[in-house]
Amino acid sequence: SIAVSGKSTVAALLERFYEPTRGSVTLDGRDIASLDPSWLRGHVIGFISQEPVLFGTSIMENIRFGKPGASDEEVFAAARAADADAFIRAFPAGYGTVVGERGAALSGGQRQRVALARALLKGPAVLLLDEATSALDAESERAVQAALERAARGRTVLLIAHRLSTVRDAHRIAVLAGGRVA
Fold first, then answer.
1. Which CATH superfamily hosts domain 7-181?
2. Do 15 and 160 contact (CB within 8 A), yes or no?
3. What are the pLDDT digits (tens) for 127-149?
4. Entry pTM
5. Domain residues of the chain, as ranges?
6. Cα separation of 118 and 126, whole Å?
């Protein structure tokens, strides 16, 4: 849809960063206003943005941030599900590789797959992807898209995108224009 149509606002409403001025936002028929925002974000929704937030620490810790206290094996499983395990293990320090501030030591596609692994680690029922592949080159986009397709199985996925090609396999497509569903 159009660049300034409210797509990211929909994501922010679902995560309860904003409250609707009219109406309600429901998830499985339940008004999310009745749910604790930190519980909703911590357990129900896995969010991946166009520019994922990575910290200047190891890849292991960046992924584990999705579920503090997760075992190494849980982190490895999430990385495999996000198609990140192979490139992580290819680094000399593997999962101990420090990614630098904002993940500067990683490519865009690698950052997205680390962010996807972090989101998957918490086992969310809902994956919320806000332009998650729009800033990637074609090869990285294909790798991330393949990982997202596998990760989507058994989950509700809200995919926010400008390009129709990004959402072509979606079960439902809603187009926003001028802040409304067109």
1. P-loop containing nucleotide triphosphate hydrolases (3.40.50.300)
2. no
3. 888 877 776 677 777 777 777 77
4. 0.81
5. 7-181
6. 14
